[in-house]
Amino acid sequence: MTTPPEPPPDHEPAPAPGDEPARARGSDPDTPSGSPSGEVPVLTGAGAGAGAGADGADDAAAEGDPTPTPRVRRFWAVRRIPAAVLAALVLGGAGLLLYDVAAVRADRTAMAWRRELADGLATRPLDDTWVRVGAAVAVVLGLWLLILATTPGLRAILPMRREHADVRAGLDREAAALALRDRAMEVSGVQSVRVRVGRAKVAVKAVSHFRALDEVRADVETALATGVDELALAHPLALTVRVARPPRKA
Questions:
Q1: Using an 8 Å Cβ cutoff, are 181 and 195 in contact?
Q2: Which residue among 2, 83, 206, 244 is buried most deeply as judged by most CB within 10 Å?
Q3: Got the DSSP string for 95-118?
Q4: Rounded to 10 degrees, what is the CA torsion of 189, 194, 196, 202?
Q5: Pairing state of beta strands 157-159 and 238-244?
Q6: Percentage of residues in the chain with pLDDT exceeding 90?
Q7: How far is CA 158 from the centre of its chain?
Q8: pLDDT value at 82 more than 60
Q9: Given pLDDT bands bounded at 50, 70 and 90, which one contains residue 80?
Q10: Distance (Å, rounded) from C-alpha 87 to C-alpha 79?
């Protein structure tokens, strides 16, 4: 007597609690070791932060660090007029002296001014009045030329912030004063404003015909502080605000 084979069960038995399917654990028994399983791992917590930091570092390395903003300096004046005057004087004096030397070499008499200058330098003592005056004039001219050579000039132009290394911009002080004056005139209670913009500070004198002076001063300072910041100057300007009542009419 033979026993008939048992029919296969309709449902597979449930796995044990400690036994996960291989596919759920992210690996396939048929997949060779080291090959991807086709699923994208998701990092959470510290792992996600480390991954994001690595990606950000790679992106920063790929894009490269931005070019640092160069230091903003004042504009240097060309000073064409002083240079032209000095060049004309030097050229004229050198040409005249060269002509006189050439004339003497050609057996002609030297010019009277050259003879008198030579005699005066040879006979006058160092404590003579004219010698001191000439030395003082020479010192003043030399100092003036040194100051012109070592200072930038163009005090009427305020340098602006440089967003790009190859672009420079400047703002005229009168234009800055006009822009700040318009800002102050928008404050309620201000009748007139006088604004003076210097290289390091802004002096404002406003006249208010109504409202409390402290309130008007506070509003003017707030408006002008915003206006100075919007000028985009390289060096911030100190702000001084004075508010007074209009003079009484007799």
A1: yes
A2: 206
A3: HHHHHHHHHHHTT-PPPHHHHHHH
A4: -10
A5: unpaired
A6: 31
A7: 10
A8: yes
A9: confident
A10: 12
Rounded to two decimals, the pTM is 0.53
How far, in Å, CA of 199 to CA of 202, rounded? Answer: 8
> What is the spatial distance between Cα 107 and Cα 101, in angstroms, rounded to a whole number?
10
178-211: per-residue pLDDT in tens? 999 999 999 999 999 999 998 889 999 999 988 8
- Close Cβ partners of 160 (under 8 Å, ≥ 6 residues apart): 72, 169, 170, 171, 231, 232, 233, 234
Q: In whole angstroms, give the CA distance from residue 185 to residue 207.
A: 10
pLDDT digits (tens, 9 = 90+) for 88-124: 999 999 999 899 889 888 888 888 888 888 888 888 8
